[in-house]
Amino acid sequence: MRAGYLGPKATFTDIAVQNAFPDVERIAYTTIPDCFKAVKNKEVDMAIVPFENALEGSVHLTTDYLFHETNPPIRAEIIVPIQQHLMVHPMQYNKWNEVERILSHPHALAQCHKFLHQQFRGVTLEQMTSTAAAAKYVSEHPESNMAAIANELAAEKYNLQIVKENIHDYDFNHTRFIVLAHNDTEILPSLTSTYEKTTIMVTLPSDRAGSLHQVLSAFAWRKINLSKIESRPLKTGLGHYFFMIDINQTYEDQLVKNAIEEIESLGCQVKILGSYFSYHTQK
Amino acid sequence: MRAGYLGPKATFTDIAVQNAFPDVERIAYTTIPDCFKAVKNKEVDMAIVPFENALEGSVHLTTDYLFHETNPPIRAEIIVPIQQHLMVHPMQYNKWNEVERILSHPHALAQCHKFLHQQFRGVTLEQMTSTAAAAKYVSEHPESNMAAIANELAAEKYNLQIVKENIHDYDFNHTRFIVLAHNDTEILPSLTSTYEKTTIMVTLPSDRAGSLHQVLSAFAWRKINLSKIESRPLKTGLGHYFFMIDINQTYEDQLVKNAIEEIESLGCQVKILGSYFSYHTQK
């Protein structure tokens, strides 16, 4: 079993894969579209990409790719807590509180804003393409007195020493990752799930006001709970959007099927991205 | 009259200001929060920042700042067509189709993807913080055979020569800019407006399913048309959102007032960002 994920090694996506599928062969890809293509062309059995962060919101590249391209369905989601640590090269261990530069992904730097402001005011912050890339860079420059902000796996992988644990400002920060795989591939996460959900994308008829209200009515009177509704540009001009909706039930429920059928009868286009179980990891 | 805008000079925000307010003194700020702070502290009479692009979607920094901070109201929106041109230093004019590097903002590079793929395949693309910064950099390095992708104003401002006009892939691409100003400041754009709108932000009660449907119902049965609804994370945990809603009417309409009153009675928190006219510029 082979899993393609958004690399490099030791990203938070890598953590999601290792927690959910400890026995698969993991293949790192450079971009989110590369992950989608790899599973579509069956280079890998499944692809794992980030979908939404509690602070930054949806990952638009993932959302837009799901809408505009034909892909295998979403077969699972994995929710991972985002825990950031400050780490240095072992050669710099004694001087860690005098670091001159701190490297990380811009989101990670933002997530540790208060800590950095209090403990490292005035230190140069440098943006890297991922937290793992920052850790790798620090490991390759042992002579420089600098630190990376990254996860525990990156510290292990790149032989860095964690000097301050859990420096992120908010404890509730999580990221949702999705697992895409063809229907004939058996997906067996080594976690237990608490609930099942369905994600659909809806394009409203352009010529009628109040269409979104009609769509929500189809769910509301059936008491089908929606956990998310988000608009994204259709890329055909200002004011044209599609909607991504998360339904807290499986598509197999007759009421969900009927609601979707009726939404289509109203003139909406509906794309079902998948019905899948949601898994939480402890770290 | 002083207008603070997202700089440097010759950004698309600068174009928006020059088109709408040709006679004001323009003051460039480095970041969107700096523009907000400048108008809040009355360093300037109004602030102009980007709010939404037809291809890339909302500018999250602007949306989040409008939600989380107390600001002067939105007093106008300015919609500007996004026209990208390829430009070089006059010293490199004869060799422009052999450029080795092309510099621009990542969104501009993405907006000219097809052109670049067809005419400059293999040429290094370099990301800059704005299209204007790319033009400035090219102007400062006359000896290098490189080009910038930027707007007409940047070519003028930094004395660059446009070698290919309108290289953007889609003609319908526009950006919405908003004008923030205190209520006692008189805003007189030199454009004519076609319509008025109201923008509100709504936080739903956390303990009740179907609340968004109720909110939309309050507008739907009154036949109040909504031109946009978008969710953003509340930054309190996955699955918690607020909603930004654009209403195609002024808040002065009794029906709009009543709808908002009822939404508040349902337990929602409503923040009214402003009722304002929408202005389109030709270029």
TrEMBL record, chains A, B:
GO molecular function: prephenate dehydratase activity
Entry-linked InterPro entries: ACT-like_dom_sf, ACT_dom, Chor_mutase/pphenate_deHydtase, Preph_deHydtase, Preph_deHydtase_CS
Catalytic activity: prephenate + H(+) = 3-phenylpyruvate + CO2 + H2O
Keywords: Amino-acid biosynthesis, Aromatic amino acid biosynthesis, Lyase, Phenylalanine biosynthesis
Sites marked Essential for prephenate dehydratase activity: 175
Location of the Prephenate dehydratase domain: 2-182
Pathway this chain belongs to: Amino-acid biosynthesis; L-phenylalanine biosynthesis; phenylpyruvate from prephenate: step 1/1
GO biological process, any: L-phenylalanine biosynthetic process
Entry keyword Amino-acid biosynthesis: yes
Gene Ontology cellular component list: cytoplasm
Enzyme Commission number(s) of this protein: 4.2.1.51
NCBIfam families associated with the record: PRK11898.1
Protein name: Prephenate dehydratase
Gene expressing this chain: pheA
